[in-house]
Amino acid sequence: MPKPGELTFVAPRGAKKPPRHLADLSPAERKDAVAAIGEKPFRAKQLSQHYFARYTHDPEQWTDIPASSRGKLREELFPELMTVVRHLSTDQGTTRKTLWRLFDGTLVESVLMRYPDRVTMCISSQAGCGMNCPFCATGQAGLDRNLSTAEIVHQIVDGMRALRDGDVPGGTAQASGSGGGPARLSNIVFMGMGEPLANYNRVVGAIRRLTDPEPDGLGLSQRGITVSTVGLVPAIHRFSEEGFKCRLAISLHAPDDELRDTLVPVNTRWKVREVLDAGFEYSAKSGRRLSIEYALIRDINDQAWRGDRLGRLLKGKPVHVNLIPLNPTPGSKWTASRPEDEKAFVEAIAAHGVPVTVRDTRGQEIDGACGQLAATER
């Protein structure tokens, strides 16, 4: 049963449940699943090694498992959850957007961004989004369904395989024309399609798969993971009790309830101060600085007085403000702030001693930047 005040997701009529995959299961559950089909429990560790450490689900490469066992293990624990429709690249190939078709035909997107000193992957937790923020292409498309834990994890596994194999150029070697070669994923942001905390259990399961030591999981650091939310207060309180060291990012976009009610409709349920207080609670329990995401929209939320109000709300708190110049979306009446208004907004926040930066936007040319993911085949 949902807890009081929590949002619940109702699957569309006729929606199919994603088939069970190894990545949906805890290490103990994998042993039980393997034993249930008549295999020795230690096969679970072998399968985990192949998927989470070697990034393969091809039975032909499971040379430590008898050929007679591979077929049924693949059938039971490695269903084909998702396939690549296409990759689109920009920034000399260092930014790559992937369009996925899920097992039921649903489309989602993820974005891999390689920098000289780090690699960040932006992943989706839902197909579409039900938060209905009017400046976001994903929100305007509506919600199709939640992704399973394995569908979330597989986006990262695919990205890590691509980096290992040198499929995404970048790094210091690119400057000399040598392409960049292999790399390791350093940061994961739940800022793709969907509201992560509206798919709470599966997102938490994915974080555990990502951060469990190899071969039980991918062995990534919780400190390299950022979970974004528009401010589902009960879910933030619940997330605070998980013991994670992930960063929490609140998509605020307005410091006053009157405007935020319009830009982030869930604000009619949980107001600005309530959302921020929940974020500060998570920060205190995790020891991580809270990130405040704020899309700057020309003549809508970029007035210097709003910057001053935001600075007053955050003064003295363990926060960092990320300002995001609004990325264009088809049919939108809104656009990014003027340079002089952006500068005044930054100065108004900084005057209160609050750290603030303007995010370096990547992927606009391929509709892969923040707020642009719409998962279309056009």
TrEMBL record:
<keyword id="KW-0698">rRNA processing</keyword>
<comment type="function">
    <text>Specifically methylates position 2 of adenine 2503 in 23S rRNA and position 2 of adenine 37 in tRNAs.</text>
</comment>
<feature type="active site" description="Proton acceptor">
    <location>
        <position position="109"/>
    </location>
</feature>
<feature type="binding site">
    <location>
        <begin position="194"/>
        <end position="195"/>
    </location>
    <ligand>
        <name>S-adenosyl-L-methionine</name>
    </ligand>
</feature>
<feature type="region of interest" description="Disordered">
    <location>
        <begin position="1"/>
        <end position="21"/>
    </location>
</feature>
<protein>
    <recommendedName>
        <fullName>Probable dual-specificity RNA methyltransferase RlmN</fullName>
        <ecNumber>2.1.1.192</ecNumber>
    </recommendedName>
</protein>
<dbReference type="GO" id="GO:0002935">
    <property type="term" value="F:tRNA (adenine(37)-C2)-methyltransferase activity"/>
</dbReference>
<dbReference type="GO" id="GO:0070475">
    <property type="term" value="P:rRNA base methylation"/>
</dbReference>
<dbReference type="InterPro" id="IPR040072">
    <property type="entry name" value="Methyltransferase_A"/>
</dbReference>
<dbReference type="InterPro" id="IPR027492">
    <property type="entry name" value="RNA_MTrfase_RlmN"/>
</dbReference>
<keyword id="KW-0479">Metal-binding</keyword>
<dbReference type="InterPro" id="IPR004383">
    <property type="entry name" value="rRNA_lsu_MTrfase_RlmN/Cfr"/>
</dbReference>
<dbReference type="InterPro" id="IPR013785">
    <property type="entry name" value="Aldolase_TIM"/>
</dbReference>
<keyword id="KW-0411">Iron-sulfur</keyword>
<feature type="binding site">
    <location>
        <position position="327"/>
    </location>
    <ligand>
        <name>S-adenosyl-L-methionine</name>
    </ligand>
</feature>
<dbReference type="InterPro" id="IPR048641">
    <property type="entry name" value="RlmN_N"/>
</dbReference>
<dbReference type="GO" id="GO:0000049">
    <property type="term" value="F:tRNA binding"/>
</dbReference>
<keyword id="KW-0949">S-adenosyl-L-methionine</keyword>
<comment type="similarity">
    <text>Belongs to the radical SAM superfamily. RlmN family.</text>
</comment>
<keyword id="KW-0408">Iron</keyword>
<dbReference type="Pfam" id="PF21016">
    <property type="entry name" value="RlmN_N"/>
</dbReference>
<feature type="binding site">
    <location>
        <position position="129"/>
    </location>
    <ligand>
        <name>[4Fe-4S] cluster</name>
    </ligand>
</feature>
<keyword id="KW-0004">4Fe-4S</keyword>
<dbReference type="GO" id="GO:0046872">
    <property type="term" value="F:metal ion binding"/>
</dbReference>
<keyword id="KW-1015">Disulfide bond</keyword>
<feature type="active site" description="S-methylcysteine intermediate">
    <location>
        <position position="370"/>
    </location>
</feature>
<feature type="binding site">
    <location>
        <position position="136"/>
    </location>
    <ligand>
        <name>[4Fe-4S] cluster</name>
    </ligand>
</feature>
<keyword id="KW-0808">Transferase</keyword>
<feature type="binding site">
    <location>
        <begin position="251"/>
        <end position="253"/>
    </location>
    <ligand>
        <name>S-adenosyl-L-methionine</name>
    </ligand>
</feature>
<dbReference type="GO" id="GO:0051539">
    <property type="term" value="F:4 iron, 4 sulfur cluster binding"/>
</dbReference>
<dbReference type="GO" id="GO:0070040">
    <property type="term" value="F:rRNA (adenine(2503)-C2-)-methyltransferase activity"/>
</dbReference>
<keyword id="KW-0489">Methyltransferase</keyword>
<feature type="domain" description="Radical SAM core">
    <location>
        <begin position="115"/>
        <end position="365"/>
    </location>
</feature>
<dbReference type="GO" id="GO:0030488">
    <property type="term" value="P:tRNA methylation"/>
</dbReference>
<keyword id="KW-0963">Cytoplasm</keyword>
<dbReference type="GO" id="GO:0019843">
    <property type="term" value="F:rRNA binding"/>
</dbReference>
<dbReference type="InterPro" id="IPR007197">
    <property type="entry name" value="rSAM"/>
</dbReference>
<dbReference type="GO" id="GO:0005737">
    <property type="term" value="C:cytoplasm"/>
</dbReference>
<keyword id="KW-0819">tRNA processing</keyword>
<dbReference type="InterPro" id="IPR058240">
    <property type="entry name" value="rSAM_sf"/>
</dbReference>
<feature type="binding site">
    <location>
        <position position="228"/>
    </location>
    <ligand>
        <name>S-adenosyl-L-methionine</name>
    </ligand>
</feature>
<feature type="binding site">
    <location>
        <position position="133"/>
    </location>
    <ligand>
        <name>[4Fe-4S] cluster</name>
    </ligand>
</feature>
